Every structure is written in structure tokens, then in C-alpha cells.
Predict the 3D structure of the following.
Amino acid sequence: MKTLLLAWALLAGATSTADAPTLVAGVFEPPRIAPDFTLPGSDSKELRLSSYRGKVVILGFGFSSCPDVCPVTLAVLADARRKLGADGSDLQVIYVTVDPRRDDAKRLREYLASFDPTFIGGTGEPEQLAAVRDSYGIFAKERDGGAGFSHSSYTYLIDREGNLRALMPFGHKSDDYVHDVRILLSQ
Amino acid sequence: MTPRGRRLSLSLAGPALGLTAWAALAPVSAPSRDAVFEIPKGTWARRMSGDPVEILPDQIRLTLGIRDTLVLRNRDDVPQTFGPTLMMPGQSFRLPFAQASSYQFACTAHASGQMTILVEPFPETPWARLRFRVRELFET
């Protein structure tokens, strides 16, 4: 009987793994806790990543005068949140600037609100922001002559428990985000 | 050409034609769809001692339906920036691709500061299969 139960448990485990929905995004295995940070938020309050436990967080890095990558990413995220309907309230988009010289809280708030008023931005001192980028392996470098920044264009997906689960490369459609956020919300 | 040379050419032409026909017509598959790159244990120590260890090429070519998933593994004892991201010791990162395109990632490990992942469509036509097999032959 014990053997039968063990075999059933093994079979059930194997089946559940095989049937587990897979993310479109690139997945970290095992996931690690997303490095916590505290920055001045675009809502003029303290932005602490760990205070969003219980929600799925999409974390991106960019700057408000970015001509190409950031507006596309933010428009896609706004569309994804809209498509999630009521579940969208369990998703928090956090966008951390790589350009603190220009992106103060007010400017970030206005910029992000043009995509979705629930999006929250993070700013701060250059050293503070560099430390956050380092903890996530984010690359950012000012282009010559102050012509904007080259920066990592992907976003991170963080689950309700604060685990850094996945990385979505730039160029994915909102449906891919909806797909992955729904999976993370269901776990 | 001498009659002996002609006979030799004809006897070689048959197998060559057969091989080309096979390469163009036989279905293409691979034992695994993963393109795996690993940072071995001790890489950080080697780098610290001045050995410029290169693990990821600055261009990786993948093919949809055959080898279309990038797998990065950090087997070293310290966190490493590997390709586009930071990976903890023992951690792996698995990124499947579903669209043929050229994907650029900022990557500080390369002199250009960029890593390109070129994802090509599944070789549907005989010509595409032939080209795929020839390239595989020379790239491996």
C-alpha cells in the first residue's frame, strides 16, 4: 500500500510539473528574492519594493526623455494592465529612472501618468540608483554629449512573495505580459 | 578528361547528389532545443588572476523549432553578470524564443557592450534545410 501511495505521489508530482504553465519570459531557477530598495517615489512617498508583497511587480529601468525603448515598454505595460481587467489591481508597475538629473519625482509622475496613473517611478541620488541597478545587473550609460542613455531594455517579473522570477526581453507584446502575470497571480 | 577520370567523377557524383538530396529533404530536428552556456566553477578566480575567460560569444544563432531556447548557468561560487542579466551561484536562466528576429542585449562582458541573439525561422524549404545543415556542419 505504501509503495502504491509513493508511486501515486511521484506520478502526481511528475504530472503537475509537466502540466505547469510555462512563462513566456526568461525564467530564473531557482528564483532569488528580488533585492529590496527604498527610493523617493514619483508619488512623493517612499518607494520600498518589499511593500508590494502580495502583488505581482513588473520592474523596469529607463528615463522619461527616452525616445524609443521606454515609451514602447510603458505603452505595452499599460495595455497589459488594461487587458488584465480586475486582476490588474494586483499588478504594480515600478519604473526606476537611470537619469536622476532630469527625472525628479514630479517629472516621473507626469510621464508615467501619461501611460497609466497607477505606475510608480523611482528616483534618487545617482549613487543610490547605481546601487539598485547593480543589484539587478542593469546596465546604463550616458551617451556622449548628453544624448540620452543606453540601458538594459528588459523588465523583471517579481511574484507575490517577492521572488525575482523572470526577465521579459524588450519587444514582447502586451498579451505575453498578460499571460505571464496571470500565471504569477494564480500561484 | 581521361575515361578513368570520367568514371571516378561519375562514381563520386552519385553519393554527392544523394547527400545533397538528403540534406535538403530530410526533416531537421535536434536532440534538445536548449543552447546551453555555462560559467564553470573557478571562472571568477581565473578572471581575477588576469585570464580573460570568454564564455558567451557576442552573437548567438538560434533556430525556431530546433534550438530556440537560451540556457545560461552560473556554476561558479560568486554572482556573475552573464549575458543580459545577473545570476547567483548555482542559478540558471532559461529564455525561450518564439519569434524570428535579432535580439540585442546590453552585456558588459563583451567589448562591444552588446550581445546579439539571432533567431532564425524554422527551415521549411529544401533550400533552407540545406543551408541550415551546411552551417551546422561548419559552426560545430
